[in-house]
Design brief:
Layout lengths: L1 E4 L2 E3 L5 E3 L2 E4 L12 E6 L4 E4 L4 E7 L3 E6 L1 E8 L3 E5 L8 E5 L3 E3 L1
Parallel strand pairs: 5-7, 6-8, 7-9, 8-10, 9-11, 10-12
Antiparallel strand pairs: 1-4, 2-3
Length: 107
């Protein structure tokens, strides 16, 4: 993800001056394979999940969703991004996938 900070600091003359710096960050999380997962992000971040065997819900705005070797996908929604999903086996339950301005590809 990305962010910015427009906080202020006190200058030697007692005036408030903007700092105005930007930053980015990435998270890598390791969870047990049989843990259900609900994950989301907003604005300029992609979601990628691998090797989760329980239910996965993924939501994103302005980024893609990549789900690989997933046991059960219950939902995947994005705006301005693609959805790519590979499942461990043929699904036995209903799932819902949607995107606006992107492609949905299931394997």
């Amino acid at each position: 993800g990305k962010g910015s900070y427009a906080g202020c600091y006190d200058s030697p003359k007692g005036m408030r001056t903007p700092l105005g710096y930007s930053f980015t960050y990435d998270f890598v999380l390791y969870i047990p394979h049989n843990t259900s997962l609900e994950i989301s992000t907003i604005n300029d971040g992609d979601l990628s999940v691998e090797d989760v065997y329980a239910a996965v819900q993924a939501k994103n705005i302005n980024g893609s969703i990549e789900l690989h070797n997933i046991g059960r996908v219950s939902e995947a929604h994005t705006i301005n991004g693609d959805i790519h999903i590979t499942q461990r086996e043929i699904p036995t339950q209903d799932a819902f996938f949607s995107t606006i301005n992107g492609d949905v590809k299931l394997w």
